[in-house]
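User: I'm preparing a small set of examples for a lab meeting where we compare how different chains pack in three dimensions. I only have the primary sequence for this one, and I'd like the structure in token form so I can line it up with the others. Please keep the answer compact; I'll paste it straight into my notes.
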Amino acid sequence: MHFQTIQKITLIKARGTRIEINESLQLFSNSLGLFSDRDKESSCFRIFVELIKRIKEDGLTSDELALKTNLSRATVLHHINKMMLIGIVTLSKNKYNISSDSLTSLIKNLRDDAVDILNHLNELAINLDKKLKIK
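Assistant: Understood. Below is the structure token output for the 135-residue chain.
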């Protein structure tokens, strides 16, 4: 049996013309699906912002992120794992960082990933159509 690596990309169409940097970051994060109804304290957003602040640096350990965000290490790791699954956070030398050197390049990389996922899904649909004799 062949298993595929799964990457989850959640995109939410959030529109707005925000002037304030914090509101713009919230809109950006919301569009990436980083907010959820369960995250009442905006923990994921707070972690994301801390990582953005260090985007050109070495990154932060989970302990450092917990200290900076006033969250438990378990909560930090939960959200970090979610962001790693999306592909926006990487781990190198026990430090987490945004996977790109700018937000613009992060979106370009996510766009490329989404196109790859859709192309693969299209191939799968073609094969399923043939097997199911739909087309």
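A couple of notes for your slides: The chain is about 55% helix and 5% strand. The CA atoms of residues 26 and 45 lie 7 Å apart.

User: Perfect, thanks.
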